[in-house]
Amino acid sequence: MDNYDICSYLGLYAKLAELHNENAFKTRAFSAAAFNLKKVKEPLSQMSDDALTALPGVGKGVISAIKTLASSGTFPDLDALIAKTPPGILEMLKIKGLGPKKVSVIWHQMGVDTVADLFNACRENRLVELPGFGLKTQGEVMHAIQFMLNASGRFHYARAEEPAQKMLGALRNRFPNCQTELTGDIRRYCETLESIDIITTAAPAEVNDFCNESGLQADGDSRFRDSAGFLFQLHFAESAHFIHRWMETTGNADHLQEIGFANLSANAATEEDVYKSAGIPYIIPELREGRGESRKEQPDNLIEYSDLKGVLHNHTLYSDGLHSLKEMAEHAVSMGLQYLGVCDHSKSASYAGGLHWEQVLSQFAEIDALNAQWADFRIFKGIESDILSDGSLDYPDEALSQFDFIVASVHSNLKMNEDRAMQRLIRAIENKYTTILGHPTGRLLLVREGYPVNHRYLIDACAANGVCMELNANPYRLDLDWRWIEYALEKGVMIAINPDAHEKEGYYDMYYGSLVARKGGLTKEMTLNALSLKEFTAWLSARRSLRNA
Per-residue pLDDT tens for 464-477? Predict the structure, then answer.
């Protein structure tokens, strides 16, 4: 073990000892030793006891730990603390800005013991309710988790878009007479990325020099990483072959093989010309995934963000949102939207301020009062009803019947096998009051895998029961996975691009939802919240008539 490793383990012991309220004197001693010994250049493992004792803050307990670490890679007191600490808490202690005291509060007062659940708690604004935390701290924690994810090798599209545009603009400004474009996964709107790919006709040596001058750190051949951990991969092309090379770096390998790219002209003036030379209609970048797109007729009415007329599945101050019902409604009006679907949490979601029936009735009254103010905008009375362990919904039928629509979602007992998950979900789908199946797998991209489901069976059940499926547009969910949209459309299942907004600014997540929806081939006609207010009202009315038949 080198000095860095030894100090890391001493520091880990100090954190865990504080977390578990061990002897305060010993905790401080190990913490001080971990800090001070980082400055020592001589190998600690080779120093005598006398030499170690002479170092600041090093006593017999620390010396014993150092010797045992050097010989066995651990020491008994550390092992004992690790043994009684959940693995997720150990990971949580690695998050910048979260010391043992804060982790203890999160663990013991919220019952959160994994980084995935902590990330979700931040996303739902639940961390702000804890003593010693606030909106700023919550944001810092969420940012630290995102940074940790970046460092692990992949990052979310939504976080990459701004640095990508910034880098693209910088290169275009530096090399104004060259062609420079985004390419690769980011051009295809992939939900997660390993790198931000950029192609340019500028000279490689000059571009690399510019990146170095800009403070980027080299990370391989024409690869640079910025201070936030984003990786930029540069591609180069001669002007005469730019279009050919741009196509080559945009489509994935399966797409290139599917269209026979290796045999196509390298001198085409446009991408349309390249596809034409292969006898294939132009395929937009987001569809170039090698999923048979060259053999299918591409819809000319794929959903656009601007097509969305309403915003469904939103939380307010009634549960765990940051803004009042009125503020959420007024912001929707200011965006030019025609309707808002309020879906605060149901009573079982006590961690998120789930609504008891008296609160629901109070919200209904406020909705009625607000609706009286507008002639061409409407708030619909919805709820995000928890799907309980047995598949039932979190209110009796007489209560569910009073909502305009129900988003049914799983929030608890996520560690299910496929049979268990499907039984639970199918029963919820078959409930005549379920309107939309919310975030169907419960996944959090790069943080938590979803529970296993049979997507075909799930979609078939929605088709049989007239249930819409949610594409949860939060960029950390994007669930339903876009790869299953095509099958949903084949079965006549409509998709709702819902932001699951916990603040008014969250509405804009529908933009990210629309991008991946296009990858799946979602059309405007099959998007629930692309319906106008009149059309959506009629759709709900028709569904209510079927339910009551």
Answer: 999 999 999 998 89
Structure-block tokens of residue 315: 């939380």
pLDDT of residue 338: 98
Residues of the chain with CATH 3.30.460.10: 155-283
pTM: 0.80
Band of the pLDDT at 215, cuts 50, 70, 90? very high
Domain 1-85 in this protein, CATH class: mainly alpha
- Name which CATH class applies to 305-548: alpha beta
What value does the mean pLDDT take over residues 108-122?
89
Q: Which residues contact 427 (CB under 8 A, 6 or more apart)?
A: 390, 391, 392
As annotated, the residues of the chain forming the CATH 3.20.20.140 domain(s) are 305-548
Whether 314 and 343 have beta carbons less than 8 Å apart is answered as: yes
CB atoms under 10 Å from CB of 375, counted, come to 7
Residue carrying structure tokens 């931000």? 196
CATH annotation of 155-283: 3.30.460.10
Distance CA 160, CA 432 (A): 41
- Please, are residues 398 and 406 in contact by the beta-carbon 8 Å criterion? no
CA neighbor of 142 nearest in space, from 96, 107, 177, 109? 96
CA atoms within 13 A on the CB side of 33: 32
Residue 14 CA to residue 30 CA, distance in Å, equals 5
Could you report the per-residue pLDDT of 237-277, keeping only the tens digit for each?
999 999 999 999 999 999 999 999 998 888 889 999 999 98
Amino acid sitting at position 515: L
- Could you tell me the CA-to-CA distances from 191 to 142, 185, 517 in Å, in that order? 18, 9, 11
For β-strands 495-498 and 231-236, DSSP reports them as: unpaired
